[in-house]
Amino acid sequence: MAHRPFLLLLLLLTAALLITQAQGIGSSASDCCLSHSQKTIPYGVVTSYRLQGPKMGCVLEAVVFTTKRNRNICASPNDDTVKKLMKHLDKKPKDAKNKNKKKVQTQRPRGRPKRQRRQRV
């Protein structure tokens, strides 16, 4: 009869271990935002964004912005400034392609041409 409390404790520890392992499978909790940032996000710092929510296995719905330094900033998807920044980023790749084309077409040599050396015969 002295073994019953020990077996019961062993059974409870095993069940707790199995539950914690089962919760960790298939979830990426380390990638989820836990709160929204209250600071305004400058347009020039952000390079891209992604959406987070219950479909991704996260509790909090958020927009995750990635900065030039590969840092993540979590923001509320309902905020008007966040929506404007998302639209700005959606337009950005199209604008970048157009700018590159213009630069290629308008390039011309600048300054004096280099003086060529005469070859001796």
Summarize the structure.
It is built from two helices and three strands, in the order αβββα. The protein is of the alpha+beta class and about 120 residues long. It has a domain at about 30-95: OB fold (Dihydrolipoamide Acetyltransferase, E2P).
Account of the protein in words:
The protein contains 2 helices and 3 strands. It has helices at residues 3-24, 80-106, and strands spanning 46-52, 62-67, 72-75. The chain has a 3-stranded antiparallel beta sheet with strand order 1-2-3, with helices on one face. The model is unreliable at 24-29 (pLDDT under 50). By secondary structure, the chain is α+β, with helices and mostly antiparallel strands.
Keywords:
single chain, alpha+beta, OB fold (Dihydrolipoamide Acetyltransferase, E2P), three-stranded antiparallel beta sheet, 2 helices, 40% helix, elongated
